[in-house]
Design goal:
This protein is an alpha+beta fold and about 600 residues long. The chain has 5 domains: about 5-185, 3-Layer(aba) Sandwich (Rossmann fold), CATH 3.40.50.300; about 200-280, Beta Barrel (Elongation Factor Tu (Ef-tu), domain 3); about 300-370, Alpha-Beta Plaits (2-Layer Sandwich); about 380-485, Alpha-Beta Plaits; about 485-600, Alpha-Beta Plaits, CATH 3.30.70. It is built from 14 helices and 31 strands. The strands form 6 sheets. An 8-stranded antiparallel β-sheet has the order 11-10-16-7-8-15-12-13. It is globular, with a radius of gyration of 29 Å.
């Protein structure tokens, strides 16, 4: 592609806190450029998954190519719509490698939030040109001037540089396009002189007929279909069967050229070949690989088992296919005595775990049992051996432990100043501490503190929303490992420990957690034909217990008349049968009980 043509390409992303209007603004951009026919247009056009539409959140980044005319010249605007939730920050970081600019969108009714700061820092570290904009400016509760002042201080610009937009009316979209064209740098070749084709893989997906389709940012040269290509990192050869761009569905093109964002159909159907951050080059003239991405590090672990072991062979390919659309998912096979064979899966957060398990159920029709989520503990035993424990059932007995360390996180919370005291109390209750408070001029405060990752998972976010009436926002980043005062809590049903219910809890809360788990299980576990006990066991003793009564059948209902001894004889026989069942009866725990316990956690 000539320099003149490349000069008319603009690659940008929209970054913002969750629910600040990214997807709605993207819809208006598609309207303004007539990228999607009016009859095909729908709300959240770039959210292609059913789950995204249901929840009103973006889970997966989605590229789209728009064509816009400005001052008599045709421009190509490549937008990558990104998620806003902290769990999907990895998706955002990948999108930033493929673009030169970012629209920082802030809700005019809410102002700067915690995730706004996190994504802004990511964009600045990636060297992107930042264009500040406000969304929902048409709302009757919008504080436009106030939030403009706040945003101007944040990105160090004049208030006149901030574009006012509305995802509802489409106001400000053309002004935003103008600013993108004028200020976002055109893509540059990574080699000073023209060389062969080279592209960076920033995402990929699996198609049952076409195989793996890689999403690429073309760095150098150009590519047409049927060109022999190579994945540089894994050294895998293939032929590009089709190339094209996104509108937002795939549209085949004759060629892709330097600066463009598009896709390549590989025809490869085996998993593990494509990886985010790999470089694609031609087999003929193999250029050097381009710096890719760091592998995402899971922070939450949970075991996933099929409800029926007959479905294990279906679960494995389902996870493989899911990983083709979600490269931040990690998993490895494991076996449990009570649950059979399954997989230990690593997630980027609690929402990520919820989304993955829901997709396995919906897209692959799998009924699953999911254990309580946990983190990785570093354990030093009294015999001197060290272990990394990411399954609570493998956590050593309390008497075998010498020391335990666990990961901590740095948490930033944006909130109205009225709630600062309640937030500080929350840190205290969750075994953390507040390290810094920064007061903003508009009656809001940034509370920064540190706490164990374990406590962040223990309903910290839900509690924050409750104590701040929903006004606070949160972002976090991992810190180091620190000494932990924890132990394993086992839940026994009919004297048998249930592996899926085992968890690692704070020593300070062991009685509370045991009572809570036992009470919850007592509420949802179906009664059996015999009396059974539900017990919480920790520190070598039973710390909580409840009894589930047996089903009662009136065996004397059919007796008419006769001596009282006939009735006693039947009742004694029933009593002996129940005693025998109690000793040998096996409790069948349905999947909805496992799910009910997981949701409670």
């Amino acid at each position: 592609m000539s320099d003149h043509t490349r000069a008319h390409i603009r690659n940008f992303s929209i970054i913002a806190h969750i629910d600040h209007g990214k997807s709605t603004l993207s819809d208006r951009m598609l309207d303004a450029t007539s990228t999607v026919e009016a009859r095909k247009m729908q709300d959240q056009m770039l959210d292609t998954m059913e789950l995204e539409r249901e929840r009103g959140i973006t889970i997966k980044m989605q590229p789209v190519r728009m064509e816009h005319q400005y001052e008599g010249k045709d421009y190509i605007l490549n937008l990558i719509d990104t998620p806003g939730h902290i769990d999907f920050a990895y998706e955002v970081s990948r999108a930033m490698k493929a673009v030169e600019g970012a629209v920082l969108l802030v809700d005019a009714t809410q102002g700067v939030q915690a995730q706004t700061l996190t994504t802004l820092k990511m964009a600045q570290d990636a060297g992107l040109h930042i264009i500040p904009a406000l969304s929902k400016c048409d709302s009757p509760i919008a504080r436009v001037e106030e939030i403009k002042e706040e945003l101007a201080l944040l990105v160090d610009c004049g208030m006149e540089d901030i574009i006012e937009t509305s995802g509802k009316t489409g106001a400000g979209v053309l002004e935003l396009f103008e600013k993108i064209i004028k200020e976002v740098p055109a893509p540059e070749a990574t080699y000073p002189e023209p060389k062969d084709f080279r592209a960076l893989v920033f995402d990929f997906k699996y198609h049952p007929n076409k195989g793996i389709i890689v999403f690429v940012r073309v760095l150098d040269g150009e590519i047409s279909k049927n060109t022999p290509l190579l994945f540089k990192v894994v050294n895998e050869k293939f032929t590009g069967l089709e190339v094209g761009t996104f509108s937002p569905e795939e549209v085949p093109k004759d060629k892709l050229v330097a600066g463009e964002i598009g896709y390549i159909v590989t025809g490869i159907k085996k998993p593990g070949v494509a990886s985010v951050g790999d470089t694609i080059v031609t087999q003929k003239n193999q250029l050097d690989s381009f710096g890719g991405y760091e592998n995402p590090k899971p922070v939450v672990w949970a075991s996933v088992y099929p409800e029926s072991q007959d479905d294990f062979e279906l679960l494995k390919p389902a996870l493989e296919k899911l990983k083709l659309t979600d490269s931040s998912l990690s998993y490895e096979e494991e076996a449990s005595g009570s649950l059979g064979r399954g997989f230990r899966c690593g997630f980027l957060g609690m929402l990520h775990m919820e989304i993955v398990t829901e997709r396995l159920h919906r897209e692959f029709d799998l009924e699953l049992v999911i254990t309580s989520p946990t983190i990785i503990y570093k354990v030093l035993k009294k015999d001197g051996s060290e272990d990394m424990i990411y399954n609570p059932s493998y956590f050593p007995d309390h008497g075998d432990l010498k020391s335990v360390t666990e990961p901590w996180v740095n948490v930033k919370i944006f909130s109205p100043t009225d709630y600062a005291g309640d937030i500080s109390q929350m840190f205290f209750h969750h075994e953390g501490f507040v390290s810094n408070n920064t007061v903003f001029g508009d009656g809001r405060i940034e509370v920064q503190g540190e706490l164990p990752m374990r406590e962040l998972m223990r309903g910290f976010f839900d509690e924050l929303k409750s104590v701040t009436s929903g006004y606070a926002s949160l972002s976090y980043e991992p810190l180091d490992y620190r000494v932990a005062d924890v132990t394993r809590l086992d839940i026994l049903v009919a004297d048998e420990p249930v592996v899926a219910f085992a968890r690692v809890v704070s020593m300070k809360r062991v009685e509370i957690e045991a009572e809570k788990a036992v009470t919850r299980l007592h509420e949802i576990l179906p009664r059996q034909n015999f009396v059974m006990k539900i017990q919480g066991k920790a520190l070598g003793r039973i710390v909580s217990s409840k009894t589930v009564k047996a089903f009662r059948k009136d065996v004397t209902a059919k007796l008419y008349g006769g001596d009282i001894t006939r009735k006693r004889k039947l009742l004694e026989k029933q009593k002996k049968g129940k005693k025998k069942m109690k000793g040998m009866g096996k409790v069948n725990i349905p999947q909805d009980v496992f799910l009910g316990m997981m949701r409670e956690n």
